Amino acid sequence: MAKPSALRFDRLFLYALAFVIFALPLFIWPGITEYGYGKTIVATVAVSILSAAWGIDAWRRGAWEIRIPWVAAPIGALVAASLFSLLTATSGRVVVQSLVLVLVFFQLLMLVQHAARDKRDATLLLFSFLASTSLVSLYALLQYLGVMQGPTEGVGLEQIIATLGNKEYLGGLLAYVVFPSIVLLLRLRSSILRGAALVLIAFNFGTLMLVQQTGPIVGLILGVVILLVLWIIFRPVEPLRAARRWLVALVLLLAFTFLVEAPSGPLNSVVGLSADGTSWIGRVWAENSGRTRSWDWWIGLEMLKDHPITGVGLGNYKIEFVPYKAKFLATPRGAAYDWYIPRAAQAHNDYVQVAAELGTLGVLALAFLVVLLPMALWLRVRRNPDEGDRMDLLLYSTGLATLLVHAFVSFPAHLPVSMLAGVLFCGLAWSPGYGTTATWKVTLRGWPLRSLVLAGVAAGLVVSVVAVRDLRANVLMGRGIAQLQGGAPQLALATLEESERLDFSPQQTYFYLGATHAQLGNRAAAVAYLERCFTRFVDEAVYLAYAELATREGKTKEAREKIEVLIASRPHEDMAAKARFLDATISIQEKDYATAMDKIQRLVADAPKFEPAWIALGNLYLSRGSRDEARAAYERALQLIGTALASAEGKLAYPAGLTAAEYADLRGQAATLRSERDFVQERLKALGAS
What is the reported pTM? Predict the structure, then answer.
């Protein structure tokens, strides 16, 4: 019989884990630039603390019994593939950062499996997660209705970010939790708690309908099919019979919720919850979303073709996206993608992203996981004689299946709360209350136990310190950006430099340090920081900013290389015009005036409202002695400048509704336009009246 002190620790450990599972989806911190970033830091520190407590308790007991699930083998293979990807990664630090998160969430799975010693423990952890996701849903609904503010003022779907930062992330999470939550209706003995679970499941389902995300809905539908097939195979009848009233109530409540909150439901016009009259089924592949995803997939496959064995490096997809986007567009298949799509940080398909980042080694490890996971779950269900346990395992498995299906069109493996859902369901399914099948038992005593505990505590301490420093760095980066946009570049410089010092792997910080130095007139330093971006943080703005500053610094060869990549990647038309203008400017610096004239003439034909091109055209005509043509070009430029300046000043006069970034951008545009206006007026004055 376990000692009272051991029992007390087990209960405290369980409650602490339940609190983490409850708190993580809800966690947001003012000043953090991205919601998921803060959650990963909290998860890292919490897992480190709980793991240390687990190990220290085992040291106190004198033995550490660990049940390792079979999925540890393919996870280990993915870790090995990630380490090999360091050989070809542009940024090794990004690989290390990403790999630590993989290990953190696997350790969280082990903690869940260890803590849930019986069905009561499992229901506590599951109810904690259901309650948390329901509060996230409530926040989203209040944003939709305008009771709480979303990204801007207003109502509707565009205001939904909840605590996850994106309604797409919310939709996926709510789909994953539906089936495992039904375990609570089967296991709870309190009618009050069952009733609460019933309402929360229906509420989450209603929010899922409301956010109109096709991928999660498709995953949910396939989940129903998978669950029915598995139920027919294993026939766990008794738990359904025992909870039949609650299950019938759930079906009726879900049907009513669908009628009320689904966009295609007949009652939505009465309650006013539908954003529009479009059926969610009709939203499949709508508005080019499917084609956009396929663009990301093909770019990932281009990365795999170039690095077939080890990939471009774990976490490096976002770094390599722009150059590989340009490469893909140059292929016959890429020629069909003739519209603008911005840089993607993820491939919107976790399987494709594994292939791109980890190569064939990663694909083999992933295939190992995809085959072993259902096989091991199948064995756990088959070898468990208890019908109630079987039904629980089928519901956990269906939740995992929904997540795995959604991963074909999204990236739940890169979202901390989605990963929390996956490891929670997997950890509960492998908890000892459901048997020991598909696990390996390891018992440590003596020096192996003490060595592992000491190593684990040390590793957890190091990772936690780095994580907290990264969190501080992120907050400082956000503050520095605000200072820069507020017109205080000297103050922003000190803040951003402190952020860089604290950050294990600075990324966007380099871009804003470059922008800050550019504002302060330190062009050489600005160019140096932007050059660092190409191994940490790469988007179209980095290419353009670097090319502009490098051109001014006389590094025309380097500038042209970046311009060629940027233009080949088909950026937004405004950015494309600026890139083409810089290309023509380089030709002027090289005294290749004929080529410059040809480029400028084609630019004004393609972008007739781009006033810098008209100014450059006037300058070129004037250098040739074509005064009339120069005057006409300057007059056209002055007309465009006047229109643009009036628009910018009008918005600056009434800044309500503008973000700090938008206000700073408008202020910069107005200053540039005034400078251009003064220059053009001087030239026209020198030319005299027409």
Answer: 0.91
